[in-house]
Amino acid sequence: xxxxxxxxxxxxxxxxxxxxxxxDSPTADLDTSPLASQPVAHHDSISNHSENERLLDNDTLxxxxxxxxxxxxxxxxxxxxxxxxxxxxxxxxxxxxxYIQQGLAYTVVLANISFTIWAFAEHRPVRGxxxxxxxxxxxxxxxxxxxxxLLNIVSSLFLGAGNYCMQILVAPSRAEIDAxxxxxxxxxxxxxxxxxxxxxxxxxxxxxxxxxxxATALHLFWNSAIFASIPFTVFPVAIVTAxxxxxxxxxxxxxxxxxxxxxxxxxxxxxxxxxxxxxxxxLNNTQCIQxxxxxxxxxxxxxxxxxxxxxxxxxxxxxxGWISGSDFVHWQSATRWVCVAHEDYxxxxxxxxxxxxxxxxxWKVPSFNKTWAPxxxxxxxxxxNNAERCGFHYSAVILxxxxxxxxxxxIFITWTAKRHDSPTMVTTGDAIxxxxxxxxxxxxxxxxxxxxxxxxxxxGMNTAVWxxxxxxxxxxxxxxxxxxCSAGALLIGVVCFxxxxxxxxxxSLSISLPSLWRxxxxxVNPFGLVSxxxxxxxxxxxxxxxxLFANSFQLLVSLCYLFLNRLLTAQVATAELFRFLKKKKxxxxxxxxxxxxxxxxxxxxxRFAAPAVAAFILLHWLVSxxxxxxxxxxxxxxxxxQRIYKxxxxxxxxxxxxxxxxxxxxxxxxxxxxSNSFRTYGDVPKSLVLFATNSREISTFCTPSSEDTDAxxxxxxxxxxxDSEGERVTFSSDVYLLHPLEGNREV
Length: 747
Description:
The protein folds into 2 domains: 90-227 and 394-635 and 643-688, no CATH class; 234-383, no CATH class. The relative contact order is 0.15. The longest helix has 41 residues, at 539-579. The radius of gyration is 37 Å and the shape is elongated. The protein has helices at residues 46-58, 67-70, 87-92, 94-122, 137-170, 174-182, 202-221, 251-254, 267-271, 273-276, 285-292, 353-357, 396-419, 428-437, 449-458, 484-506, 513-519, 539-579, 606-624, 656-677, 695-700, and strands spanning 129-135, 226-240, 281-283, 302-306, 318-324, 364-366, 372-380, 390-395, 473-475, 627-636, 649-654, 680-685, 717-723, 726-732. The strands form 3 sheets. Strands 1, 2, 3, 4, 5, 6, 7, 8, 10 and 11 form a 10-stranded mixed β-sheet that branches. A two-stranded antiparallel sheet has the order 9-12. Helix 4 packs antiparallel against helix 5, helix 7 (202-221) packs antiparallel against helix 13 (396-419) and helix 18 runs antiparallel to helix 19 (606-624). By secondary structure, it is of the alpha+beta class. 41% of the residues lie in helices and 13% in strands. It holds the Pfam family DUF6536.
């Protein structure tokens, strides 16, 4: 119901348009115009009956909303009445919301601990990594993607519970605001704030810091508690002479593997090929190249037969031998020997089938003493099926760490609920309600015009002409100081994508959309791995370092969400305040009473919070498939290949299509934010928009009449109040309240 602005001064007479009291409540609209003609209910007390008769006989309906009057007709207007204690109101209380956050947090902790106990009992870890299942790579890939999506949702909900508590903890109390105001300082109200950190109580600051540290650690590790692995085969390779099958030389004598070799301990697997080769499968050069070019699909022992003879090699039929995959960390280079002999080969160039197939007839491979051996054909042993060897694993260290961190944060949440449930000004509505209930100079003292002017002079505010048109129009971006963090995050995403594009160009790979799609989202490719120092560390330390690197992008996304939340909160808080210029509205508070509205999300209404949370959950998932940890599980050669745990390795992989999708979502979020920022606040001067989150300025605009003591419980409006105490702009339930007019000197 729209408010009716009555322009008659109180001295003109008692005729009051009571439909100016319009209750913009989610439960009911109230029109009190017929109240003067309604009989008093028979069950009212005698005293109430007499009071109502006196009011009606004298035609002196109250100018301000009063609980003692309105509760006779609407019991819910009295916050202490049993009918006001509805389920919705109880659920919206800050204490109840904290209990819900506790329940959510401990549910996640219980699930984490239960899963960890089950995993350790049923799938004991080896070298810090447990294998939950091994099987078809397509099934494992889908399972990994689905469970990581679920994990992102659960972790977002859990971290959201911690963020809820952090907002309560960093929000200032009335005593802290009063202390800041006495020093002529202002605190932030209604937005996540680092500015308030030094002003709040030390215990709350420590708790806020504790939740922040545990949340940061969880961002860095949680997403990698479970992960998939791809199979990688370690197998012997020998380059032999054309007459090796008839040669009787002993390779261990005629061509001993030097002790300095990385594969000295496995030298006998090379020597054994001398006899085993008689039962191997014959492959021509083209077939051999196709089978062994991809290191992830090479699973059989291999003999490369050259055109040389043993006589040309000092009586030895073995020209050279090595273990493919002995450098298990750089496994993507395990089969580069296929291409290195050709003059145009570049080590930074990914060797594809098209590149090497043209050399099949004149194919050469590196041999002993930096010579090249021309290959006539190949002999391949029995192959294994790597398509059935993918694994789904957990990290024992990270699972335990996640259990400990979630338990610690849950304890912090409980501590917040039990020890820090005292009123703090979390929303702008909380601050307005508090200052209307207890104005800075006390509601027992009449606020004289002199006192009001002194208060406003102290905040640096003076009267000015109300102008809101042409160049002075206020837009949403005027309520904030820019979006540098989001722009910076987007820049990082664009840089990552450009680097990936340049990488693929350098590797002579196609970057067309069909090709990018073929490379796959979250799919491991030998050419999609990060090299350098991050590729050298091994063992648990290597895994943790790569997890930290991969998940640092998750932390970046979370920081961007916090900034966007702060940005949007400031804009929405300002928009909500200026809606009070149009009609009376109930205050949106963290613990509603009377006709006040609830605020489940604290900083943002659901219509803004839900899309923002959904967008960033999607972004977290896309980032997890864009930059990720690649774990390889090493096997020996053949169809019955055995696990070689000491040759397992971890690397950083990236997916160009995933990076593209993540950047696109980031661009959409930024475009929506910028577009939304061009909305206007209506007929409001842009010089006024920054007061919505400033405690001193909010206090200045909360100077109600000494009779308007219950305004904080009822719908109020923002405008000009003129009474015996002077004329001022304030929040009030006054039915005579006037709105500022264009060109008038008001604020």
